[in-house]
Amino acid sequence: MNWLDRVLLLLTGLVALYALARLYQAYNKTPRTAYLAYMLSFLVLLVAGVLLIAFGYDLLGSPWVVVVTTLIPLGLATGLVYDLKPQWAKAYLLYAVVGFLLVAAVYLGGMGATYGKFVMPFVHGIAGLTIIVLPLLAVSQSAAPAGFALVAVGGVLIGLGGIALSFLKAGKQFLFFSQPVVLTILAPLLLLMTLAYAWGFVKHLMAK
Q1: Which of 11, 105, 114, 140 is found 20 to 30 A from 62 (Cα to Cα)?
Q2: Which of these, 117, 106, 192, 102, lies nearest to 155 by C-alpha position?
Q3: Average pLDDT, the chain
């Protein structure tokens, strides 16, 4: 990992920390399950950035990293459902728990090369679509400010990045995302994704 990647990961951590602070303030003012789910995702982002700075991209080979970072899209997607479609919240929470357990069983059980190409697109795909569709729907219905649409942009980025990483972990290549390409764009991708999420959610919080 070069110095530029470390700088970008440090900035990613700072943005995640800022978003955490704003969400914590919102939760103290109005305790909501959605805020807790959002905070979980940003906390994982923060910790992941710090660990990557400390240990480099070799850390991505750990099955624990694959499992824990799955909490980022699942946390954000679950929070969005609780926030915008509470009537679906219990069913979606069940999906998130089952999806997380599937990822944990496959990767911690050493079956990532065999089943990861099925499980990860399923988990990241549904969570990613949720993160993309719900903010855009809320903005189109004037239920959220226009800036909230940036959360959908973050959803596209995390969806592509997550699927590409999962394919690499399984020994495959997703589209043109070879290992050198993924490692080259990973730090900028994480920063752009975190900025999009933070901006979108802060705009949403300010409108409440």
Answers
A1: 11
A2: 192
A3: 85
Q: Are 128 and 155 in contact (CB under 8 A)?
A: yes
Domain interval for residue 14: 3-207
| Residue 50 token pair | 């710090």
Measured between alpha carbons, how far is 72 from 74 in angstroms, rounded to an integer? 6
170 φ/ψ angles, rounded to the nearest 5 degrees: -85, 5
Tell me the DSSP string of the chain.
Answer: --HHHHHHHHHHHHHHHHHHHHHHHHHHHS--HHHHHHHHHHHHHHHHHHHHHHH-GGGGG-HHHHHHHTHHHHHHHHHHHHHH-GGGHHHHHHHHHHHHHHHHHHHHTT-HHHHHHHHHHHHHHHHHHHHHHHHHHHHHTTSS-GGGGHHHHHHHHHHHHHHHHHHHHTT--BTTB-HHHHHHHHHHHHHHHHHHHHHHHHHHHHH-
Q: Which two tokens stand for residue 183?
A: 């490692």
Number of domains in the chain: 1
d(CA 38, CA 194) in angstroms, rounded, equals 12
Confidence label for 36 from pLDDT (cuts 50, 70 and 90):
very high
